Amino acid sequence: MRLRLGMVGGGEGAFIGAVHRLAARMDNEFELVAGAFSADWENCRRTGERLHLDPQRCYHDFNQMAQAEAARENGIDVVAIVTPNYLHAPVATAFLNAGIDVICDKPLCNNYAEALQLAETVRRSGKQLILTHNYSAYPLVREARSRVLAGELGAIRFIEVEYLQEWLAQPLELTDNKQAGWRSQPEKAGAGCIGDVGTHAWQLAHFVSGLLPQAISAELTAFIPGRQIDDDVRVQMRYANGARGRLWASQVACGHENGLRLRVYGSDGSLEFCQEQPNQLWMRPRDAPAYCITRASSFQYVENRSLARVPAGHPEGYLEGFGQIYREVAARLRDGPQAAPLLPGIDTGVQGMAFIDAAQRSSAAGGQWIDLN
Question: Is 222 in the same domain as 251?
C-alpha cells in the first residue's frame, strides 16, 4: 500500500513543489492526498483541483491541516514542506506535534536557535524529519563517498567545494520574480546565498568526506547594491584530522548556471564530481593515470549500481536524486532508520544551521575564526 503524502507549499507558480510531487511518484511509493499549497486560498484550491484531490482535504493553513489529518483514520503518513525557509520550523513543529513524520526542503529553518528547538521537538515526538539534500542521492556521489570511506584516497588532506550560479547577478528582487523576491528578504530566507546553495555545498563535502569542519573563517558579501543578504560566500575550513577545506558559493558568478563541484584530495589520490556532468566521477590516483567512472558501469561498487534508474549512457541527475530520497524515505518509514541510513535528517539540519550561524558571525567579525565544536 502506498504511503499517504501531504504537502505544505508548492502551489501554482512554485518550482520545488512540482519536483517533490514528481519524485514522490517515481517509485509509486506515495499518494498525494492532502495539501495546504498556498496562503492564497484560490491558488490552493486550484492546485488541489488540478491534482485531483478531495476538496475537503485542501486546507486554508498548515495548522488546520495538521489537526484535521491527525484526526482522520486515513490521514497522511508524512508531510512534505516546500515553503520559503521561514515557515520550515513552524510547519514542521505543527506536524511533528500531531504525530506526523516530516520531509523538509533545505535549509532546516531560519536560524540556529530554531534548529535546536526543532531538534528537541523531533526527539520528543518520536517522529522522523528528513531533509531533501538531493545531491547526496546521486549515484556517483554515493560512489564517491564509498571510495573515500574505503580509503582509496588515503588520508584526506583538503576539500574544495563550490556552488556557482549567475541567476541573481542582476537585482531580480526588484522585479516580479517570486523566487528572487523571498530569497532576498532576511525575514523569509534567514540567510542568503549561504542558506540557499551554500548549505548544499557544505552537506555534499561532509557527506562524501565524512568530515565536519572544526573551525571556519568566512566572508559573506552582497555585491548587488541595496541587496539585504549575501549573494557570495567564501569560507576557509579546518578539520580535526589536520585537513583543510575551502567552500565558495555564489549566485552572482556570471557564466555559471548550476556549478556544484566537489574535489577531495588525499595522500594517495583525489576525486572530482561536477553536478553538471552527473554521470561522471573522476578518480586521480597518485603516480597513475586518471580515470573516469560512469554511472551504471561495472566499475562502480556493487552497492551503488542499483541506484541507477536508466541504462549507462543516458542522462540522469536532479529529478532522480529527489526520487531516490523519496524511495529511501518510504523504506525508512516502513522499516525503520536502518533501512535507509544515508538519508540526511535532523542532525544534518542542525549541523548545517550551525555552519551558517558560524559563517555569519565570522564574517561580521572580519573573518575571525569561529570554533564549531
Answer: yes
Residues of the chain with pLDDT > 90: what percent? Answer: 90
Residues in contact with 226: Cβ distance below 8 Å, sequence separation at least 6, in sequence order:
171
| Residue after which a domain boundary falls, among 131, 151, 171 | 131
Whether 38 and 67 map to the same domain: the answer is: yes
Provide the grid cell at 133.
539534500
Question: Do 262 and 175 lie in a common domain?
Answer: yes
Q: Which amino acid is at 142?
A: R
Same domain for 124 and 154: no
List, for residues 100-113, the tens digit of each pLDDT value. Answer: 999 999 999 999 99
**Cα dihedral across residues 79, 80, 84, 89: positive or negative:** positive
224 and 91 co-located in one domain: no
Range of the domain at 149: 137-311+345-364
Q: Report how far residue 275's alpha carbon sits from residue 273's, in angstroms, rounded to the nearest whole number.
A: 7
Candidates 338, 342, 370; CA nearest to 354 is: 370
CB contact at 8 A, 361 and 120: no
Coil/strand/helix, residue 288: coil
pTM as predicted: 0.95
Q: What DSSP line would sit under 73-131, residue for residue?
A: TT--SEEEEES-GGGHHHHHHHHHHTT-EEEEPSSSSSSHHHHHHHHHHHHHHT--EEE
Mean pLDDT for the chain?
Answer: 97
Total Cβ atoms within 10 A of residue 310: 12
Element (H, E) at 232: strand 232-239
Q: Are 7 and 79 in contact (CB under 8 A)?
A: yes
